[in-house]
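2 proteins. here.
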Amino acid sequence: MGSQALQILRQGVWAALSGGWYQDPHQGVGVNALHLYLWLFLLGFPFTLYMALPSSMVIVAVYCPVIAALFIVLKMVNYRLHRALDEGEIVERNANEHMDRGAKTEQGNTSTRRTDSNGPSDPGGGIEMSEFIREATPPVGCSSRNSYAALDPNNQIGSGLSRLGTTATIKGDTDTAKTSDDISLSLGRSCSLCKEGSEEQGKFSSTLYETGGCDMSLVNFEPAARRSSNICDTDSHVSSSTSVRFYPHDLLSLPQIRLNRLLTIDTDLLEHQDIDLSPDLQDRMQSQEEAAQKVKQYYRFWILPKLWIGINFDRLTLLALFDRNREILENVLAVILAILVAFLGSVLLIEGFFKDIWVFQFCLVIASCQYSLLKSVQPDSSSPRHGHNRIIAYSRPVYFCLCCGLIWLLDYGSRNTSTTRFRLYGVVFTNPLLLLSARDLVIVFTLCFPIVFFIGLLPQVNTFVMYLCEQLDIHVFGGNATTSLLAALYSFICSIVAVALLYGFCYGALKDSWDGQHIPVLFSIFCGLLVALSYHLSRQSSDPSVLFSLVQSKIFPNSEDKNPEDPLSEVKDPLPEKLRNSVNERLQSDLIVCLVIGVLYFAIHVSTVFTVLQPVLSYILYALVGSVGFLTHYVLPQLRKQLPWHCFSHSLLKTKEYYQFEVRNAAHVMWFEKLHVWLLFVEKNVIYPLIVLNELSSSAKNIASPKKLDTEIGALMITIAGLKLLRSSFSNPTCQYVTVIFTVLFFTFDYKSFSETMLLDLFFMSILFSKLWELFYKLRFVYTYIAPWQITWGSAFHAFAQPFAVPHSAMLFVQAAISAFFSTPLNPFLGSAIFITSYVRPVKFWERDYNTKRVDHSNTRLASQLDRNPGSDDNNLNSIFYEHLTRSLQHSLCGDLLLGRWGNYSTGDCFILASDYLNALVHLIEIGNGLVTFQLRGLEFRGTYCQQREVEAITEGVEEDEGFCCCEPGHIPHMLSFNATFGQRWLAWEVLVTKYVLEGYSITDNSAASMLQVFDLRKILTTYYVKGIIYYVTTSPKLEEWLANETMQEGLQPCADCNYVDVDPTFNPNIDEDYDHHLAGVSRESFCMTYLNWIEYCCSRREKPLDADKDSSLVTLCYGLCVLGRRALGTASHHMSSNLESFLYGLHALFKGDFRISSIRDEWIFADMELLRKVVVPGIRMSLKLHQDHFTSPDEYDDPTVLYEAIVSHEQNLVIAHEGDPAWRSAVLSNSPSLLALRHVMDDGTNEYKIIMLNKRYLSFRVIKVNKECVRGLWAGQQQELVFLRNRNPERGSIQNAKQALRNMINSSCDQPIGYPIYVSPLTTSYSDSHDQLKEFLGGAISLGNIRNFIVSTWHRLRKGCGAGCNSGGNIEDSDAGGGAPCTSNSAAANESQSSMSQAGGNLITGQGPGVGLHPPVTSHPSTLGTSHSSHSVQSSLVRHSPARASVASHSSYCYSSRHSSLRTSTTGFVPCRRSSTSQISLRNLPSSIQSRLSMVNQMEPTSQTGVVIVQHGLPSSSSSSQSIPACKQHALVGFLGTEGGNNITDAQSGGNASPANHMQAKRDEVIYRIQIMDPSQVLEGINMSKRKELQWPDEVIRLKAGRNSWKDWSPQEGMEGHVIHRWVPCSRDPGSRSHIDKTILLVQIEDKYVAVVETGVLELGAEV
């Protein structure tokens, strides 16, 4: 602890005060002396010049060139030396040689230059260790404490090589862009350790693979062609991706032992004496060791083309002297900044701004700024990252130049009396006294630079630029928060361009003539453009990357070239394309909407409504904004909270899911959510624009008057104020109503004389209120955190700091006010009650763009996958669930925020989503008009003890608390107790929602050990494994190719013998179903007895059945593959299948694809490796799922048909893959309905195997809103503690649990390595256009295509309605429903089809055939489309009809129920309307409640429509029956009758019988009509794969083809047409036609694809003819 404190004082405190200089005990005297003298020179030289020379430009003329020369020389030499170390040459020579013989040594035998192993001088030869050691010199991080090789300046590796009798010149790595954390060492053939005739050294290469016990599986070896004279042959399969292990064999000679110890990079082995070797070997190498001690080493530094000098130090020494600037531009920038610091500092000195001791202090500041360019402070107090930070070195000189320039400008302004006076609110901002005060303040701030940078009040330069642009854009131009430096600059420039475009219109209008009743038209144009442009800017994201990507995709559509060798080339992330489509839709919508609202508001403004109706209009608008804002942003959110006003014990406005234990569907849209959306829409699109235009009209001329700001400045202020107010109102109007009401009241009744017109008052008060809100949140955080009754001391320092902070409370409040003004975090020092102000940060907070990179097989080496299984820890595997949660939020977050489901929100707010196992912090960064950019940080599933305590705090309820102070008298019903109310008000968080519904995955994990504990269960798994192999080989399209492969046939020739038996010890009678006890193995005969039936059945399901006889080649192939697969399982289990742990290890190895072919009998598989990838691997994975199914239905899979269909179903509906496979991540992100994996968990000493099952469903979350200043403060405190103060204690006090502030959860969500989240998402933007529920009642994007579709659909409805109403016998009811469905008949098809209703058992049954609704009927003669006969028109007030016109190829009439029907009829929506004597029901048998309804129905029907339909010469006729009920209405009647009248209908119809033939024929000839898809979001892509089987499908084959799993790359698009072949209707009595939701679902056939779509998402085109 003492050494760490001393290190912090030396490298942190002292270095921060001096600018980087400190005494480093780990460096030599020369390095420290050079640093000291250089720092003293930079300090003393300007001070001496100022004291010795008169205050004139002579000081500048002398000082600047000297500094320029010094920095140019130092930077150039430093850069050249690093280049020499990267690309130069290491020369080894004897100690008695001189430097003048360097040229000769280059050609002699004492030194040879290494060339490329493939070069002409070395045609074959060495082994290059390019992965383990990369650079010829040690890296930055290498020292005597942490280097890999513990290298000293004498270079022990070179010495070790020289002891072996070699002299070499080793050329280093030429890539200067590589990080200095690597070392490069190449051993060429030219540095061979063998001499001619030396037997021991000649065997060097053969022992490279067998060295002293070290595991070098990270080393990549690239063997070249070797000479047989000195290098023995090795394994020809070793390549750059081969993992090689070393074993302690064949210790032949001392050179080999020495080299092996060098390769182990172990300093202890390097220093150890070889006392265990024989004396002969030691004597033999004695002479070489003595020669090696005289070898020295140096680098060649070329000064001129033929002149060089020797450098006797390496990169460590050079890096200890000066920081490295990798690029030439960095060196040039450093030199320019050093000269600028010298110039500006010397100018301020000679101008006399500093006197007495402050001159020395200013010279100290100059020296610290210049020295930081040579040797910067690492780590700096404001550095956001561990290690060396290249950007932080430029902070001091840049800030110094800014401050010096500001000092000069303020002084110049104070002395320039001709400056235009600028006065606001009684303050003259151009007052010389005010400018001089500001100048002196900046001078004091500059002199305090050492203290400022020690405390860390100023960020690094790029952070400051981003913060400055963001703050100006938000508070001046009304913009949003930004996501990066590029986004900040882009957004700021867009705002400047918008102001420049609007300024001309405003200036021209102000120059025009104004009077009390007339406003220039140009000003009205300006107002219209202002509203339109503000609306467009508010809807655009600050990040231009998606926009640039969209433009690139339009200009260069084929610019994205895929690398076919890339393993991720087949895995396509759908998110970028989705974002591009969203941006494209928004741009098209803005193009139309901006034109509309621009013209609309221009028309409103030019109508002089803002002048004639004053002041009444202003009062009305203020009252509207106050009432609507108060209702929308205060009353409704409070009523919807879990604890409204912290007084009620439950929400007063509950959602439908509030009392549901398990949510099964998407959240239902409640009436108050719709009310919230419409109020918000009216508020920000109508009320606020009218208020701004009203103030513009009344204030513009006054602002531009000479008494105020004149025309030029006035036009600028009007433009900026209008743009700011409108943009902020469009983007986030949450708190705007408070600002408006307060401003009106304050400047109307309190300080009316100080008002600068209401427009400017609103502008400045909006800025002030944003700072006041920030101060309010900071004070709440402080009060909550230091409240004495709930303080949690995490360490002894906390106990000391608590009373110490009490007398400094006034300073704390001053810091809070200052931090609120600059928007800086107020962080608790080391987590205690002492608060300090941190440096300014943007809303994004974290300066690094850190996001989690999941470890899987796509980014790890093959050797590490096979040996160590990287990423097998739970945290890495579980991170995919947070990634999927991020995608779900990207789809729905913005819409849910607009629906008010997260309460009030603003820029920078933080929320915690908590469920059973998921705990994520959501940080809202950018909030625009219809868009939200957020970042999700997922915490560990099984967190620490502290995290669990805080999770309990946010999940436990307080409704049962009955405390009142010290007693428990209870509480009022539906109210909280006094103690609970008091406690809830002293928390930095609050629970908003307890049932927030979001789509995600439910995780089920079962122990594989318990499922495979006994041998019988393992035998079942092996049996399914074999059957899975047989299934996949028989269904493979390459089966015929495999059967014809001669290599395979030759390898399988022994298996073709009917007496063949495989007696491999892998086979076990306990786990192999086909084990032959007599032959002690698996014979072909026993295999056929067990699996031949399965093979034959699988072959019968092929399109081209193959011969599956017992002696066929197919059976031989299956037998060989099954034996191979089981042998691979045994090999992976180390031939210990009887042991459970070994069996599970082998099963997991095969599941992830690690197959080891160990037997020569299985080498035939190498003829086509697709057999392993497409047959065996899927077989072992499918067997795991079948084994799970066995527990639910043990004997079900004995039937081959059931088993085959189960495999087909699982193959289509289930993704089975290893979690390290990139396909697993792709399946999760693609919303696959179900996934299965076998996980090997090695964490915290546990070693177990789990079967992970994922099912897509709707998850329920608790939404907790956290004080955003609490989050920012705790994050800033953790960064300072871990980076600058170097606290490495994992149990530090600052991360202990504090329930009132959720300290542990917030601190653990920091970026790694400061925190430890298992997932940090990239910044993700959610758009409101992607929210389906919001689009239903608010409408989607307004684009040209949507307008065209709306016009076309409206025209179709009008045409069909007119056609139904104008025909004879038409009914107005049809027109109301969108057009009738005429019941027509066709004489050409009359003899082919009949329809009837069969009633049996007291129930109405609609006939169904096996092929009902699968294909449209083929008719040779079209029916009378577009015409209707009054005798066939059947209308009912009980059943509303569809607008589609149906042409029926039958003599029966059919009625089609529309999508709006509340009473549904039949499976396909068509009910035969056949009036016969058997279908007549007397109203006397019905209840009186129904008779009145039916009488109304019959009054609407002409009597000529009733009767029996008789086909005669193709013309229909009817007979009257006034009191009969058509069969097409009987289903509707059932919905009315229920138990009351159902039996009456049943009795009345009991006598009717129908022919089965007619029954089948009727269903086959039902009307088939065409539709066009209008809304692809209504397509149910996964309904066919649901495990709950909500729908009964007409055919199982269609079900398997009607989903994303069958479509593959195809997807339904807008405008596609197809015909309806089946319908599911809500509340249908027929289970086969019953919809599981409250909407009608259509089954549509589009070409050869089947699509299930909600009826509201299609446009009906008419009947299929």
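next one coming up
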Amino acid sequence: MESRLRIVQAMEEIVPEGSSQPSQWRLRAARHSPEPFDSEKLPPILVSEIRRFLRVANELERESPRAAYLCRFHAFEKIHTMDQNSSGRGVRQLKTSLLQRLERDEEVTKLLRLQKSDARELEYLYLKKKSENALEIAFVLMEVLKAVSFTDGHEQFLPAGGDIKEKSESYSPYNILPFDSGDSQNAIMLLPEIEASISAIRNVRGLPSIENSCETGLPLDLLYWLQNLFGFQTGSVSNQREHLVLLLANMHVRQNPKPALATKLDDRAVDELMGKLFRNYRNWCKFLGRKCNFWLPSVKQEIQQHKILYIALYLLIWGEASNLRLMPECLCYIFHHMAYELYGVLSSAVSLNTGKKVVPAYGGQNESFLRNVVTPIYKVIYEEAQKNKNGVSDHSKWRNYDDLNEFFWSTNCFKLGWPLRLENDFFCTSFSSKQISTSKESPNETCEWKWLGKTNFVEVRSFWHLFRSFDRLWTFLLLALQMMTIMAWHELETPLELFDPEVFDGIMSIFVTNAILRFLQVVIDISLMWGARQNMEFSQRLRYLIKFLVALIWAITLPVSYATSQGSSVCSTMQFQSDAGNFCISLYLIFVLIYLISNFIGVALFFVPAVTHYIETSSWLACSIISWWTQSHLYVGRGMQEAQVSLLKYTIFWVILLSCKLLFSYHFQIKPLIEPTKHIMKVSINTYDWHEFFPEVQNNAGAILAVWAPILLVYVMDTQIWYSIFCAIFGGVCGIVRHLGEIRTAGMVRSRFYSFPSMFNGSFVAHPSQKKKGSIFKDILKNKVCKSTEAERDELPKFAHVWNQIIANFRSEDLISNREMDMMIMPLSSKFGGTSARWPLFLLAMKFSSAVNMARDYVGKHEKLSRKIKKDKYMFYAIKECYDTLKNVFNFLVVGDLDKRVLRALFDDIETSIRNSSTPIDFKLAELPVLIEKVIKMVEILVTVFENNQTRLDALIISFQGFLEFIINDMMVEGGRILDIIDSSYGQERGGDVSLMQHVSHMFKSDSRGFIVPFSQSDEGTRNSVLRFPLPDKGPLKDQQIKRLFLMLTVKEAALDIPANLEVRRRISFFATSLFMDMPPAPKVRNMLSLSIMTPYFLEEVKFSEDELRLSQDGGASILYYMQKIYPDEWKNLLERFNYNITDDDTRCWASFRGQTLSRTVRGMMYYRKALKLQAFLDICSNQDIAKGCIAIERDKNQKNSQNSLAAKLDALIDMKFTYIISCQMFGLQKAAGDSHAQDIIDLMSRYPSLRVAYIEEKEEIVDGKPHKEVYRIKLPGPPIIGEGKPENQNHAIIFTRGEALQAIDMNQDNNFEEAYKMRNLLQEFIRHSGQPHPTILGLREHIFTGSISSLAGFMSYQETSFVTIGQRFLANPLRVRFHYGHPDLFDRIFHITQGGISKASKTINLSEGVFSGFNSILRQGHVTYHEYMQVGKGRDVGLNQISKFEAKLANGNGEQTLSRDIYRLGHRFDFFRLLSFYFTTVGYYFNNLISVFVVYVFLYGRLYLVLSGVERALIIDARLQHIKSLETVLATQSFLQLGLLTGLPMVMELGLEKGFLSAMSNFILMQLQLAASFFTFSLGTKAHHFGRTILHGGAKYRPTGCKFVVFHAGFTENYQLYSRSHFVKGIELIFLLSVYNLFSMSYESSIAHMMITYSTWFMAINWLFVPFLFNPSGFAWRMIVEDWADWNKWMNNVGGIGVQPEKCWESWWNTENAHLRHSGLCSRIIEILLCLRFFIYQYGLVYHLDISQKNKNIVVYMLSWFVILAVFLLVKIVGEGSRRLSTNYHLIYRFLKLLIFLSVLAGIFTMLCVCRLSVMDLVICCLAFLPTGWGLLSVAQTLRPKIEEYGVWEPVKVVAQAYDYGMGGLLFIPIAVLAWMPLISTIQTRVLFNQAFTRQLQIHPILYGKNRNR
């Protein structure tokens, strides 16, 4: 309404009555409602030039519609000038919409013009904005005014805008340091360390001048000089200028002792940065035998300048290198040459060729470095990455980042020259000539044949990588197996029998085995490295050749000499003599001793790691030769040895573990199998139940293989189980030693709260002189025993202040209510006296009531009562505070002299009684509860709100009177002195004796002199009350003391339930526990390491929109309804916080902070800034200033213009120490497209001003009429997302980070204020390790905050928690094999930016990008530690499908890791015991999961062979082999993995540490009741399937799980797509195996024995088939079942084709599911076909058991059975052809044909039943025989699809495949439908799935079925 009135008035002024303007225009002007024109959704080509005009137009729309119109018109003219033909993408659409808006507003805005002309209108606004200091708007208006004035011929209106332009540019936006803004008085620019750094980089004295350097208004500095010299981009230079200044400033301020002059940069800071930054470069030069190109002047004053020049040069190269940053040695090569050029320029050297001064090869033109250096190498990376074909191409066919980087590990890289020789083979790609053959300037036109190929390693898909990378492990296991088998075969009883000649000779054969295995390893190594031979140096080729020859010689020599020694009659007849110990020294023994020499040397060096480290890193020739023979000559992987103590720790661990494993294997696996094996070998089987191809095989080799195979597999795998057991035990012990679980419950928090301030002071308060922190036990002893009261007072205020901030954050997060906050805060001192800080009420409230009860019932002396009270600290403080507060309140309220004397006398008597220890004598303590009730009533009046203050006053007076009457009359034994005071005063007025009641009734009513006034006078109102009443609404008395007193008196048992929120309890408990853990003492914020946080963001949820919150999800509940039910207390707290008047934005934020959104992550990470600001304040304040300091900071917020304010100084300091970057690669496109996510991100930046967003934006440049894409801001050579998206996203944003430490937080993480407070301590871990290598990665634990959503979420939470706590704790110490597993990990940023970044990005191979940063760090002599005193929140998937996708992604990633060079190098460079730790905690875990599944198949197929061949019958009946204990051990061992016990033991141990073992066991039992075993069995199948498929065929890819918070029903079709091949097919196969085994073994084996053997397999099969439906919400709801069946049929029958998604039809899904076979290699296809052959065993074995075969064992029977398969195929072919030819035009004939075929099949079956004696059982057996055969044929056909399609028989294959899927789906659907029909099944399932929610009294059924208020 107001805006409309303003517009009408303006119209009346401009268009007076009688004007000639048409009435319709006046009417439109009156109705003109300004609408903003979208200024954000613009074509990329126009953003930089046009957006500012449109934005200013929107801002001026309401103030001056005409000026807004003119700005838009000017924008339209500029658009047309820039692109007249509208050829740019989106330009034509923008022109059209803008022109329509201009036509609509042209006449209307003229009427609304406030001035006479457009020029005057613009001039008026220009002057107004200039006066308001809105310089950016003023500059835009000036530009529009120029255009309008020249057009209209009014040049006189042009203002002098030069100063405005200059000022608007000088106040341009900046990041942290306002270099370009000219704001030298900014608070951060006034910091001494910043001044010192800026002064150092601006020192350009003595530098030679550069020709053709552009002049700017900016001060000349070293980076600007380098820009003009080498042609760096302006944006990159500005970015790195700030980067360099902050690095130097942070290092300068930490120097100790402090420099003499704070504003002069310390040389030590420069040396420190140079040492860190060029560590890799120096090592690279040393490795290649080159000198570092650091040339420093002899003049001391110039040394620092030159060092900074080298540092700045490297940072400029790195900052502009784009994807080359992932190739650190490539950057070293570039820097090496550019540093040499820099030296030439600095030394004014003269070129010998030209006779002129040396100049850089590429000159200093704009973007010269990008165009000439970065772009050529980038093109090679890009073209090679294109050959990956989105992950389907074999790794050996293209060069990844590692291959290209490792080219610079050899001296061949210098053949590239400088300037770069683009004709070098390095720049040639196999298809670049095809791509650029038409280009006239292409140097690669004929380079296709020169492709270099792989470098140093070839990633070939093969399981042999596992043997190749971990050959020492497999050799050890096989040799140990051989030894144990020999020992068991000879039935040894004592160790001395090992020296029996026969036994000893057998054991000595292990060296023959070792020689053969080593030869095999060399052969595999050479064959897998064959593709990299072209890039190998001659020395490496020679090494492989010599190793092959040596291994071959030993593989021949040792077996031959061993056979010769066995044939020697002398040696064989020698007897062992225990006394003399005589042995035959045969030739074989001599060869063995020679063979073991290298092993002896290796063992000796193993115990002296320092010597090994020196040999590997030394450049001495002898050391180089030794290293050359033992290891490949590689740049990485040298000097990775651990310290002696660490080595001994993990060696002892593995010696104990392997001893237990081998003893168990010998006694329970190997030895029990020997006797049955001997019996099997003796049994002679002459009759078989099938056609035996090899009836003459001796010793029943097939039976022995069937028995031994599963045992051997379990022997290989069960070390994983032993590791899990030992990890749980030893990890638990380590946790206890580190005080984990010190405080587990709320009760323990209360009991230990008294010690928190002292522990807090020791860890979190920065002291002037930091001393090394001693033993934690000494600290506790000191704090408990030797602590003085003065120390308590000194440490309490800071702790109280931080504690209150923590509680306030709980309240702002709506985790606690207002009442709980009042109960938990610790009030600081006030003007009313008392202690400096007070304990929280939740500690004291219960204690006060207990003290009252104790005193009431007490009989005895005062001293004993006093000791009992003081024994409980909280009870004593509660009494003291209550007394002090009551005294303060009375003194404040009472004003009259008499009243004050009475109260003073009363309190004096009480205090005198306490001093004289006569309280029980002077007071009647039994009446104390009544007195407390009166005090409560009085205090309640003070805190209660009344409408009438007079009513409150009267009630208060009566209460006071009652209080005094009771205490004087009923409590005090002698109240005489009090009465004397009253009598003396009263006698002066009235005289005579009066009763006590009369005395008291006249108190608190007196005249102005303080004399008592009679009631009559008082009631008449002639006198005023002397009580200071009412109390002020705000102030410490009412807000703190009285309210706190009231709560202390009234809250009793309820205090035990505070806080009620379980999350608050957990957070407080962990924070309290961390106080007792070992952490470095905190430095001052000014001296701490700087920190940067980076979060990669793609398209995830930023903040829930209103529609997302309100609308239902997939037919279920809305997100908001779901949140309200999951967090009912927090929703109530939100309403209370806003007084039940919340806005939609408040609701969105509340819900978003409880989902897995970017908003939650940003809020959590910004707690670091909040905590640091608080710490910085506490660093500079004293205890007396803490309370008023907070108020001062708030006051300073209103003084932002004052750079000297406390808030400005704190902000400046925090800006120097903390930065947060969100890497939003899609933000530019989202902003251009008007995506709501972009606006949400902008809102985040508004909420958190220090938040920064790094994004990629594409700009179109019109060149020759064609659009060309390029990326700008800091211009890149091309699209930065070449490899895996996430690491590339991180790489493009890392140049904007500033800290010395970097935390790469993921999008689904969270943080808490109290945890952020520890970051300052954590960063000290980088520098506190004395005597040990400084860590390069600091590991942190994670808390999974999604565990309470459902039972599945709980399983994942427990599993993840056990891994990120006890698992990683043990990995880091003592095993020393922790890498980078969690996104909370902190990186030494300077180390990693020079070593290739914080992740690897090669497509597919680096799918698990994070772990490779850990691999890379260790290989480059880094060090990884793990710390548990700090944790970060993390969300996990809560639905089975999302969990399965996540586990599939991990399994895929580990499969790719198996093929990687990092795994190979670590496996070869680690010592043996560290290798064991590495294997069993990385890819070995997944491989052992695969083996555990493979064991089941081997066992069952072995049993199938024994049963179908008749061998088992002969063994059981003839040889009486009923039970083989080893097989029982095998199945029990396999069940250990299958049922999830592998993760269960560490989980129970960790829960026991943190929550108590009773709680841990109850949680574990509850998990089992919730079918955790079923979940883990299903998960086992997921890991095994995807790991095996990835290694064999590839196909690994990123699987988005969609971290949604709402649990929804997944349809049957979706489940079938996800689990058909990974679980359902395998489950049905197991059912077939078990059915056949049960069917043909039941005649001679008891059913109980059968079930005991196969129970775990039945359990696995059933779970693989039905777990997806069991853990599916509403999985057994009949309505959902009906809908799922309809969707399933629709999906199966839909016709596929190009563009049809797999979710829409079966055919598209089937093609996608088998796509990996089309791109698989030849060897992988052969292996796949061989694996498919197992399905033909059914048919071969079962046809001989048909009654129709009449026990004929001829091979003809089997051959005839194939006619059935052929007949089925022909029938399918006939039906298919009939459908294609007849179904459309001759439908009746087609239906008749199908009927005829059906009747023919029935007739054939009936004929065989009658004539050929075909039985009903035969039909069952035929199904069991031919169905697997058909599936096997389908699998083979899919593998050979290209060949089959050539013969035109692919359509029948597809029809059969569809029939199989239809059949499998139907088999699965039938039992689900039956269960859904039963009434209680759905309820039971919901109870099992959401048990935790039920225990929290949530409403699950309304959530699942969408019964919410919005529907």
